[in-house]
Design a protein that fits this description.
Low-confidence stretches of chain B: none
Low-confidence stretches of chain A: none
Number of helices of chain A: 9
CATH architecture of the largest domain in chain A: 3-Layer(aba) Sandwich
Number of strands of chain A: 14
Strand order of the largest sheet of chain A: 1-2-3-5-4
Distance between the termini of chain A: 225 Å
Radius of gyration of chain A: 64 Å
Number of helices of chain B: 2
Oligomer: heterodimer
Radius of gyration of chain B: 18 Å
Order of helices and strands of chain B: HHE
Order of helices and strands of chain A: HEEEEEHEHEHEHEHEHHHEEEE
Mean pLDDT of chain A: 89
Helix content of chain A: 40-55%
Number of domains of chain A: 4
Chain lengths: ~400, ~60
């Protein structure tokens, strides 16, 4: 007897056959999107049309977000062929990638607008980089020129830095997952690091060379952009040539124009720092010398003022001394003249000088006789001459 | 025993604080001399670090999803 299956078991069997025979990850299906909608506000659903033969159409359904997809967009889809419970044959979408510059550009612009509205590009949230990083997390491909450029410029400018390199694909289908894993590893709070290494990186550099919008898809991927946004460590993003831009550039704390420029942004130039150090030493020396000179000038001025004062006092003293001397000399001369005239006067008044000219002084009872009437006849009289004296008696009066 | 690692960033920061002090209007001579000595010491240590030219690259392992 033939085996009997329930409808659900039959559909399970059909899905199993499809799973085993059509390996979704082995190829991508390319076509044009039409009738894109979000079912129940959660599940993206659309039809993929064959570009050459419009009548061939594939129903597509996804159980997760698949990025920005719009009608008319050319895309490549990876997924698994399944039959739904309503027996609808469809592709359960894993991943969608736009194809061609036009489609990429549209997806890029739409996502850029969305992230901008969410505030992922806000200037206010951008963090300053440490001036002298010790550890730098580098997310890029070890085979690419960007890797060599970054390390070359880093070595030219600065030394003593540890670069933790997460070797990732920067394009192709592995790129997004590898970059996301690198961000996760570098941001892990409990990192499995060597005992002599402590702490996390000071900065993360996400970089690659230039390329088409298609090449840069990983740097324009929504998940990568959100990983840059969520990184607890500041992120520098440097993509390609100066004209290239990516969504990661807008989200990153610092946008570098090229991988070389990224190195320039994360470390200072040792020549500049050396110059600054020399200027610092010179400036301190000059300030200190200036201070010493200032004090010296004050002291010199003080000394000059004091010397001047002493000099003035000395001159003043000398003048007084001279005046005193002059005054004394004049006073002595006057005194001498007066003494001389007094002496002369006294000499003239000396009675003995008159006696020597023949005059005599008569005196009675010790009194000089000036009037004869005071004398009586017979009274004693003393007569003094210039030399010697006599005692006599009054004989007559006239 | 590993020698204590010189922290360039901290030393440079201290040097800048000293510079800021010197840029004030009034500089006290005694204090200035002390700071000057410390500043020269820091500048010399920083200069010595600048002669270091090697950067080291370590490959890190990430768990890819």
């Amino acid at each position: 007897m033939d085996a009997v299956l329930s409808v659900s078991d039959f559909l399970k069997l059909a899905n199993e056959v499809l799973r085993l025979n059509i390996q979704g990850s082995a190829f991508a299906i390319e076509g044009e999107v039409s009738g894109f909608k979000i079912v129940n506000g959660r599940w993206p659903s659309f039809t993929l049309k064959d570009e050459q033969h419009d009548e061939f159409q594939l129903a597509c359904f996804a159980f997760h977000e698949i990025g920005v997809v719009e009608d008319g967009m050319r895309v490549r889809i990876w997924g698994a062929a399944t039959v739904s419970k309503w027996s609808k044959f469809q592709l359960t979408v894993e991943r969608v990638e736009p194809v061609g510059e036009g489609a990429f550009k549209r997806a890029y612009e739409a996502l850029k607008k969305k992230l901008e509205l969410e505030g992922l590009f806000d200037v206010a949230r951008k963090r300053a980089l440490p001036r002298f990083p010790k550890r730098i997390g580098l997310i890029t491909s070890g085979d690419a020129a960007a890797y060599g450029d970054f390390l070359r410029i880093l070595n030219n400018r600065w030394g003593g830095v540890v670069v933790e390199h997460a070797n990732v694909h920067v394009q192709g289908k592995e790129a997004v997952d590898e970059i996301l894993a690198a961000f996760q590893a570098l941001n892990a709070p409990t990192r499995n690091v060597r005992p002599d290494v402590t702490g996390q990186c000071d900065v993360i550099v996400l970089t690659r060379g230039g390329g088409s919008l298609e090449d840069l898809h990983a740097f324009n991927d929504e998940h990568v952009a959100r990983a840059v946004y969520a990184s607890v460590i500041p992120v520098v993003c440097g993509v390609g040539h100066e004209r290239d831009e990516s969504l990661c550039d807008y989200v990153a704390d610092v946008r570098a124009s090229t991988p070389s420029n990224a190195a320039e942004r994360v470390v200072p130039n040792r020549e500049d720092v050396l110059f600054e150090l020399q200027m610092t030493s010179r400036m301190m020396e000059e300030r200190l010398l200036g201070c010493v000179n200032e004090k010296k000038t004050v002291l010199e001025n003080l000394a000059r003022v004091m010397t001047h004062q002493v000099h003035r006092q000395k001159i003043h003293l000398e003048a007084i001394t001279q005046a005193l001397k002059d005054q004394t000399a004049r006073w002595i001369a006057t005194l001498k003249t007066r003494i001389e005239s007094s002496t002369r006067l006294l000499t003239n008044l000396d009675p003995t000088r008159i006696l020597s000219r023949g005059y005599a002084i008569a005196s009675a009872n010790g009194q000089v006789v000036k009037d004869v009437s005071t004398l009586e006849l017979g009274s004693d009289l003393t007569v003094q001459f210039a030399k010697g004296s006599v005692e006599t008696t009054v004989k007559c009066k006239r | 025993m590993p020698k204590k690692e010189f922290n360039f960033g901290k030393a440079f920061e201290e040097l800048e604080t000293i510079m800021a002090w010197f840029e004030k209007e009034e500089v006290d001579l005694d204090e200035g001399l002390k700071k000057f000595e410390r500043g020269l010491e820091l500048a010399a240590a920083c200069k010595a670090t600048l002669t270091e030219v090697e950067n080291k690259v370590e490959k890190i392992k990430t768990k890819f999803l």
